[in-house]
Structures are given as structure tokens and as C-alpha cells.
Amino acid sequence: MTTAVRDTKPFSSFEWMIAGRYLRARRKEGFISVIAGFSFLGIMLGVATLIIVMAVMNGFRHDLFSKIMGLNGHVIVQKLGERFDDYEQMADKIARVPGVQVAMPVIEGQVMVSSSSQALGGLVRGVRESDLKALKLVSGNIRAGTLDGFDEQTGIAIGVRLANQLHVGLGDSITLVSPRGAATPFGTAPRSKPYQITSIFELGMSEYDRMMIFMPLKEAQKYFSKGGEVDVVEVIVNDPENVDKFRTDILQAGGPSIAVADWRQRNETFFNVLSVERNVMFIILSLIVLVAALNIISGLMMLVKDKGRDIAILRTMGATKGAVMRVFLITGASIGIVGTLAGLLLGVVFCWNIDSIKNFASWVTGTTVFDPSVYYLTKLPADIDPHETGGIVIMALVLSVIATLYPSWRASRLDPVEALRYE
Question: What pTM was estimated for this model as a whole?
Fold first, then answer.
């Protein structure tokens, strides 16, 4: 009478016990354990690196976006073929459009800024006091002085890095030289005028802190010989990511004499480069996880070859092909799963403490690891996106499981008779 062999339940304690024994190091299996260890480290470091790099790239984009959008308008309104001298009425009409927060007339011009010790290039923006205070990036980061009474004076507000490079402080005077001066019989003469510093701001973006100068709108009209007109009206909306839905309403409010451009058109190349760089970095760094998954395959193949006698004995004792396959599936997948979770923990902890780690690396190497003058921002940002991080973890887990399928299948196909023939 033949007794039918019953398969154990999938992923039973018996299979987990054998997989656990295979994961523990044995003296004669030292080389296999080394491969498993490198596979674990590879997946852990690959996942952690992906999380850190993607978080830093997201942080860069978020900080640059907030700085650029916090200082410049989301929609730019210009006049077509005529003087922009009705800017106050135009700004009032646009400000009444639903979703528009601020409509600010702006005059912009490049100047040379000089003090008794230094001369540098700068960018002057003539704005009204109420509009400047509405820019929280500026009004919320005043380091010295005040913006109160900005319209009633001829003083200017400059960035902290510009003040440091010019070796000036609050109350000191600096000279602005503009190439757009008065017309003479010999051509246009540069205009030079001293201005007192009434406030100093720090925006957190080195390029802006080094060159940006704010001047009262009326004074900017005099200085740049604009008369009663402005260059543009910059509009700040409450949802800059969906700026398209405001364009039609702004055009209708402004009339047929205006042209409208949004922030994406003005910064299209810059943000496209960031997006491409981010995608390329993700693809390149994903190869680290892929290589670690290939290490799992090689380690499991060697383990299957080394455990041929054990597999044959298990089969003769009644273990089914499915049970053998699941044993090695658990063995390989455990390396990938634990490595992925360890990489997730390492990446998140690294991102949370990235500034402390950066300062420690600077102290150890004696160099500036993150130079604000090179990278625009004054601090190293890291913004963890939960959905993106979840995608990285799922990708690593899937690769780890897929890597175990072929070696596990090979183990289940092993013939007990052939394995025990020469034992």
C-alpha cells in the first residue's frame, strides 16, 4: 500500500527553520557567507544612496523654486508697443482676479555697486513698500533695519552677502552707477548716485543675497529716467504649479494691450535641466541595487551547489520541490528585504541629520563640503518624498525577490539520485 506524501503548508516553520540555518555562517561556507554579506551591504547602501540623492535633488528643486518664486512674480505682464504708465490701474484690475495675491509694478535694471573698498555688479528692483512687504521671502528675512517708510525715503535694501563683500553696514552709503543715464550731445552718460542702506536682508540663496538691491519705485523711476512708467507688473498667485488657469483671467482683466508670460517660460531651461539630472541620477544609482541583486543570484547558486547533498536528503525524506524552492527563496529574499529595510533606515536618518554630517565632513577634511557660492543655496537641503521613497523600497524588494527565483528553481529541480550517487 502506497502512502501519499503530503506537501507542507507554504512558508511553514519547517521552511523558515532550514532557511535560517542556511543564512547562519558555517566555517566551511565562509566564502558563501561573504558573498551574502556583500549582497546585503550592496542593497543597503544602494537603497540608502538612492533615498539620500533623491531627497537632496528634491530639496534643491523645492528650495530653488521657493526662492525664485518667492522673489519673482509667477506671471509677468508687459505692455505691447506703448508706455506702461497706467500701471496702478492695471495692478488694481489684476489684483481683483480670483487667486491673485499680489500685483506689483516693477522697474528692473543692472548697476555697478561701489563702496570705498570694492565695486561689484548688482540688480536693482524698484518696488512699492506694500508689495515688498507682501514678499515674505524678503520681509520675513530682514537682518538689520526695517522696511517701514520705504516709499517715503531714498534708501535701499541690499543682501547680506553684498553688504559683506562691500564691507558696509546699516546706515552706510554705497554708490550705484547705471549705464542708462542722461542723454548728452556726446551720447548717454552713466548715472551715478549715492544711496544710504536702510535695511539688510538674507534670502538664503547666495546669488540673490550677493546682487539683489531693492529701491522705492518712485526713486527707481527717477534713477532710471522712466518718468511715470514701469517695466512690468509681476503677479503672484496662490497656486503657481497650476499657473495656466490664471493666464486667461489676467489677460481679460488687463485688456488687449498686454502680453503675459509665466514663470515656467522664464525658467524653463533651468527646471528642465534639474528634472533631467534627477532622472539620470535615479537610473545610474539604481544600478547599485541591481548589482547587489546579481550578487544574491551568485551567492544562492553557490549555496545550492554546496547544499546538493542536503537537498537530496530532504527530498528523500518527503520534502516536495515547492518546499525546497521556498527554502532558498526565503534564504535569498531575506538578504534583500533586510538590506532594503536597513537602507531605508540609513537613508532617512542621514537625511534628517544631513547638515550635521556635512559639518562633520568639513571638519574632518578641512575643506568646505558645500560652498554656498557654488551651489546657490546657503544650506544643504533634503526633502524626503514618501511616495518616491516608497517606490525605491518597492523596486529594491522586487529586484531582491526576482533574483532568488532562478537559483531556487534550480534547487527544486535537483535530482536526489544524482546528488547522492557519489556520496
Answer: 0.69
